[in-house]
Amino acid sequence: MAEIGKNIDFAADLLLKGKLVAIPTETVYGLAANALNEKAVLSIFEAKQRPFFDPLIIHLADIDSVCEYAELKDERLKKLAKTFWPGPLTLLLPKKDIIPNIVTSGLERVAVRIPNHPLTLELLKKINIPLAAPSANPFGYVSPTKPAHVEDQLGNKIDYIIDGGSCNIGLESTIIGIEGDAVCVYRLGGLAIEDIESIIGKVELRINSSSDPKAPGQLKSHYAPSKPLFIGDINDLILRHSTKKIAVICFGEENFSNEGLIVFNLSRKKNLAEAAINLFKFLREADECLAEVVLCHQLPDIGLGRAINDRLKRAAAR
Ligand code: TXA
Ligand code: MG
Q1: Ligand 1 atom with minimal separation from the 189 CA
Q2: CB 3.0–4.6 Å: which of 19, 92, 267, 304 could bond 109 by disulfide?
Q3: Is pLDDT of 274 > 80?
């Protein structure tokens, strides 16, 4: 199994040798390799069993480094970068030739982000190369938010896991880019649309829900536990599935009278940030418990609630 620790020099050395290292970020854990080394990048796809049409995000330590690998010219994107980096924002920027095509699946733009985690920032400063890193889970499964999640699923395929504790946002980054003259959001995530619009005004949602493998990005079914999962009004769902052993993922003060329910409460206080932190952990635990089905409350469609609902819908899609 992979070693877990906080040795940044050791991690840097492995990455420079073309090996895979799991890195903590504020959103979810990433499975990192040297983005400039095609063979190393290839091994990310192999370890995750990820199709090559699904491009990777590169991670860098500061805006000057971003400009070495991509064109950050649009004033609105620059403003977002200055306001929200390091943080849960990924920008799609025209790529420079130095980024191998395997990273972008042959697309003209590269996805870039400066993550907000002290250990990973230290690592990025030390190695001074971009790290390509998708979430550190097998393709299509729930993203990891603590080292044990990575160890459980990919421990035998990677060399080292940096222990950065539990992720303090718990949802992947929000992905933004320019199309024509519009600023578009391609993935809802840990940075709320309201926060983005408070800086640059209205943005367009281009949230893909495709099962077409030619379309990169957002597959219809993703973040999915292996058990059947349904979302909606929780009490209706419980009635409908009353003959089965049920796990419930709920939100707010809920007191169920049904016997034998396995209950995971995202946030009793109805705090969306707390719900985001708990979401992927509970999806995993619900998948591992004795229940046959997982029933989930739909959250309010505001702030981080939108991204949480997006993840739940994809987890429910078959
Ligand atoms: O928070 C995050 O973004 C985490 C941490 C590790 O940084 N990373 C992450 O990576 O969620 P991943 O690979 O699981 O999701 C990246 C998404 C994919 O849906 C991918 O298709 C899309 O970003 N993407 C990456 N590069 C792209 C590009 N050049 N054009 C369009 N979509 C792109
Ligand atoms: Mg992912």
Answers
A1: 1
A2: 92
A3: yes
> In CATH, what number does 3-205 get?
3.90.870.10
| 55 CB near ligand 1 (under 6 Å) | yes
Protein residue whose Cα sits closest to atom 32 of ligand 1: 217
> What distance in Å separates the CA atoms of residue 164 and residue 147, rounded to the nearest whole number?
8
Res. 215 pLDDT band, cuts 50 70 90: very low
Q: How confident is the model at residue 213 (pLDDT cuts 50, 70, 90)?
A: very low
Atom of ligand 1 nearest to the CA of 115: 7
Q: Which residues, at least 6 apart from 260, have a Cβ–Cβ distance to it below 8 Å?
A: 245, 246
Write out pLDDT tens, residues 124-166. 999 999 999 999 999 989 999 999 999 999 999 999 999 999 9
* Token pair in block for residue 181: 């003259």
* Ligand 2 geometric centre to CA of 240 (Å): 31
Ligand nearest to the CA of 170: 1
Which atom of ligand 1 is nearest to 104's Cα? 29
Beta strands (DSSP E) in the chain are 3-5, 21-23, 30-34, 57-59, 89-94, 109-113, 131-132, 160-162, 174-179, 182-187, 204-205, 229-232, 246-250, 262-265, 293-297
CATH topology of domain 229-316: Rossmann fold (3.40.50)
28, pLDDT greater than 90: yes
Q: What span, in angstroms and rounded, lies between the C-alpha atoms of 159 and 282?
A: 27
Name the residue among 114, 191, 149, 147 with its Cα closest to residue 24: 147
Spell out the domain ranges in the chain: 3-205, 229-316
From 45, 117, 135, give the residue whose CB has the most ligand 1 atoms within 8 Å, as the site to mutate. 135
